[in-house]
Amino acid sequence: MVLANCRGRWHGKFLPAASKIAGCLPDTRYWLTMLLLSVACAAMAQQAAANFAVAAPVINMYAHPDSESEVVSQAIYGTTVPAIERRGSWLNIRTADGYTGWVAASGLRAVGGGSYAPEGRSVHVTALGANLYRDPDVTHRAPLLQLPWEARLELVSSHADDSARWLQVRLVDGETAWVQQGDVSAQFKPLTIPEMLKLARRFLGITYTWGGISSFGFDCSGFTQMLERQRGIVMPRDTDLQAAWSGAAPVGRKDLKPGDLLFFGSSSARITHTGMYLGDGEFIHDTTFGHPGVQISRLDDTPWTKLLVAARRIQ
């Protein structure tokens, strides 16, 4: 079932049939038929506009509607995503960076034409992991959810407890929960490059996860994309696309400055890894080399010194 491009289905499927009808039916019946087709198309367009909110802490986005296919990226709790297509229990979604992939429909909740946690009524997780509870207490019950960095939550009207330590939030499924104020923020202030590099070190030791974009596990390009997002910059998701992105300018190795992006591979035409320069010959990256996870390496060390094929500076 296609959730978008109604015009394509109209021209590709319905018009030939309508042309045949026009040749053999009276005008009234012809225009009634066309009216019904218009209504059907409008209904499809309305369905295409329907948004969904991610209802699990992190969901995998697959290359095909099959959990055995490659994980291409992920989506995080509370983010609103439009659906492009449905196949059985799978939806093809598009994230804010333009990335598309198939997700299990069970990991989403429909929010109609609106969004979950709209501006002015939302907070985002600023801890590497935040527990949500049924009551404003950490001892009464086990956490309902543990959410990663950047997950979004919608505040309810009477959102603070008496001590102002807790905020009450509405979950994607409509239930309410409590989160500690120290784990979230309602503000977003773009970071400077030094602030971004300081933040990057908070993620040291976070495991490597192919396709990962969250504090539960990044891949190399998901990590650098997340860091740049804290500066208010949205850049492409994949390493090769980041290297080719028009928003970044080439920079020579001898001219590197903290915050520059480094790209590694067998050649400039085959880039497979990325990291961020810290200064003094060091860079931070999420890699499987040595021990999987976010770590700091030296640019002059093997294998990195021979694999560096490009560097970019965000303009």
State which percent range the strand residues make up. 35-45%
Share of helical residues: 10-25%
Class inferred from helices and paired strands? alpha+beta
Q: What is the mean predicted local confidence, pLDDT? A: 86
Order of helices and strands: HHEEEEEEEEEEEEEEHEEHHEEEEEHE
Q: How far do the termini sit from each other? A: 41 Å
Instruction: Please give the radius of gyration in angstroms.
Output: 24 Å
Silhouette? globular
CATH names the topology of the largest domain as: endopeptidase fold (from Nostoc punctiforme)
- SS elements, strand count: 22
Short description:
The chain folds into four domains: 6-48; 51-112, SH3 type barrels (Roll), CATH 2.30.30.40; 122-185, SH3 type barrels; 193-314, endopeptidase fold (from Nostoc punctiforme), CATH 3.90.1720. Helices cover 22% and strands 37% of the residues.
